[in-house]
């Protein structure tokens, strides 16, 4: 029966030697990494200054004034200007705008009861802003919207749903006024 020590390269001496070489190699690698990281700790050299920032930190963090002029922040819809035309909803590539409208009792404008934007799906492409004729939907300069769940990422700008009684009352009023019901597409 042959012994392991009889085979070249598998003797106790070569195994020990390989083991020590591996340890030295690991130590050398760790020292190299340490020497690379060390200057960053003390900010030595132009390329090695601290680049990370505390967040949130009002002193070092970016504020709205630091943003580029054309940056696209969270969306806002001025519901007083919104005509409920749904152009933004149609062009949105991610279907994150939901709009529901009703007829108002006394004017050609529609009642925008629901206008929800789901920021968990929004890709901030800006298409809705570009297509909005009355410029009611705009990008703000706010980009902070941390939330505990997806439902909290839905922003609602609508006027609120009307009750069936209110709907009937408004319909009667329109009839009295002889107005044609005007609904947006
Ligand atoms: S910015 Fe783009 S993705 Fe976001 S709501 Fe507008 S159209 Fe949709
Ligand atoms: S495109 Fe503008 S006006 Fe039309 S529904 Fe959207 S936000 Fe309102």
Can you walk me through this structure?
- The chain has 185 residues and is of the alpha+beta class.
- The protein folds into two domains: 4-42; 68-177, Alpha-Beta Plaits (2-Layer Sandwich).
- 30% of the residues lie in helices and 14% in strands.
- It has four helices and five strands.
- It has helices at residues 12-42, 87-91, 127-131, 164-177, and strands at 75-77, 97-103, 110-118, 137-139, 154-156.
- The strands form two sheets. Strands 2-3-5 form a three-stranded antiparallel beta sheet, covered by helices on one side. Strands 1-4 form a two-stranded antiparallel sheet.
- A hairpin with a 6-residue loop joins strand 2 (97-103) and strand 3.
- The N and C termini lie far apart (92 Å).
Name the features:
single chain, 185 residues, Alpha-Beta Plaits, 2 domains, three-stranded antiparallel sheet, 5 strands, disordered N terminus
User: Which kinds of small molecule does this entry bind, naming each only once?
Assistant: iron/sulfur cluster
Write the H/E string, N to C.
HEHEEHEEH
Number of domains: 2
| CATH class annotation of the largest domain | Alpha Beta
Q: Classify the helix fraction into a percent range.
A: 25-40%
Largest sheet entry: 3 strands, antiparallel
Q: What is the helix tally? A: 4
Beta fraction of the residues?
A: 5-15%
Q: What's the Cα radius of gyration?
A: 33 Å
Shape: elongated
Overall pLDDT score: 85
- The residue ranges in which pLDDT falls below 50 over 5 or more consecutive positions are 1-6, 181-185
Query: Widest sheet: strand order?
Result: 2-3-5
The helix-and-strand class reads: alpha+beta
Give me the CATH architecture of the largest domain, please.
2-Layer Sandwich
Q: Please provide the count of β strands.
A: 5
Report how far the terminal alpha carbons are from each other.
Answer: 92 Å
- Stated plainly, the CATH topology of the largest domain is called Alpha-Beta Plaits
